[in-house]
Design brief:
The protein has 134 residues and is mainly alpha-helical. The chain has a single domain, classed as Protein Binding, DinI Protein, Chain A (2-Layer Sandwich). It contains four helices and two strands, in the order βαααβα. The protein has a two-stranded parallel ribbon with strand order 1-2. Helix 1 crosses helix 2.
Length: 134
């Protein structure tokens, strides 16, 4: 066996590690949005330029939060991919494979060479251990 295959999209979309990261970011966004909504209600009583300035302040703050969350999403995605790469290389070495390729790049491959599920199991186990310690 010289080549193995993985589905990166599935790993990023369905693994427990990716879902936990997404849920954490969603909670943070919801918290900030709720705070902004409360602030909007408070400033609804203001008039004219005070109202406009306060709204602009809220929108700017939310924009910064969105930017920060997007940066964190990219970082978490990178962390998941790094772990997936480590697990893929470990499996490849154990099986004597010389390469691991993204399955979307193949026109055909034997499904027994797809190690996506094994990688997801290892990612999920690592995520469960991490989640228990936090």
């Amino acid at each position: 066996m010289d080549i193995l295959f993985i589905d990166i999209s599935k790993i990023l979309g369905e693994s427990l590690a990716a879902r936990l990261a997404s849920e954490a970011l969603e909670k943070r966004w919801k918290k900030h949005k709720e705070a902004a909504d409360l602030r909007r209600q408070e400033i609804a009583t203001l008039q004219g330029s005070l109202y406009t300035a306060a709204l602009e302040e809220i929108e700017a703050a939310l924009g910064l939060v969105m930017q920060e969350l997007e940066e964190q999403r990219q970082l978490l995605r990178h962390e998941v991919l790094e772990k997936a790469t480590f697990f893929a290389s470990t499996i490849a070495i154990q099986r004597g494979a010389k390469a691991v390729l993204h399955k979307d790049r193949a026109l055909y491959f034997d499904p027994t060479l797809d190690i996506t599920e094994e990688i997801m199991e290892r990612l999920d186990q690592a995520a469960q251990r991490k989640d228990k310690t936090e």
